[in-house]
Amino acid sequence: QFQLAESGGDSVQDGGSLRLSCAISGHPYDSYCLAWFRRGPGKQREGVAAIDADATTAYADSVKGRFTIAKDDLKNIMFLQMNNLQPEDTGMYFCAARPRCWVRVVGEEYEYNYWGQGTQVTVSS
């Protein structure tokens, strides 16, 4: 099974950048999907970006062109580079994983089996 731990959340100004990290351990799977979700104030958790073992990626429309998901297989870390942050990007960001998966779209919350505790991102105008 996966163990996931996020880091890198912070408070930034409108237009700023952050890089989130997700340390991954424990998984024996050759195929899997990793994803970033976020929960904004008063909102449901939504998918932001996903990547699979072959490094195929998918993004939510709201972050395309601003966010980049990547992974370092040697260090077992997944990243989310977030540029041109907007106040609507504020929220708790979670990394998630599910085995035996190939990315086509980010997917829904219920499709992911393993979750980290989250890291807070706050963007002020």
Which keywords apply here?
single chain; 125 residues; mainly beta; 7-stranded mixed β-sheet; 4-stranded antiparallel β-sheet; 11 strands; globular
Gross morphology = globular
Please report which band the strand proportion falls in: under 5%, 5-15%, 15-25%, 25-35%, 35-45% or over 45%: over 45%
Given the structure, what is the number of helices?
Answer: 0
Largest sheet: 7 strands, mixed
Explained architecture:
The protein is mostly beta strands and 125 residues long. Helices cover 0% and strands 50% of the residues. The protein contains no helices and eleven strands. The protein has strands at residues 3-7, 11-13, 18-25, 32-39, 46-52, 57-59, 67-72, 77-82, 91-99, 114-115, 119-124. The strands form two sheets. Strands 2, 4, 5, 6, 9, 10 and 11 form a seven-stranded mixed beta sheet that branches. Strands 1-3-8-7 form a four-stranded antiparallel beta sheet, with no helix packed on it. The termini are far apart. The model has no long low-confidence stretch (mean pLDDT 95).
Give a nutshell description of this structure:
The protein is an all-beta fold and 125 residues long. The protein contains no helices and eleven strands. It has strands spanning 3-7, 11-13, 18-25, 32-39, 46-52, 57-59, 67-72, 77-82, 91-99, 114-115, 119-124.
Compile the SSE list and pairings.
Layout: E1 3-7, E2 11-13, E3 18-25, E4 32-39, E5 46-52, E6 57-59, E7 67-72, E8 77-82, E9 91-99, E10 114-115, E11 119-124
Parallel strand pairs: 2-11
Antiparallel strand pairs: 1-3, 3-8, 4-5, 4-9, 5-6, 7-8, 9-10, 9-11
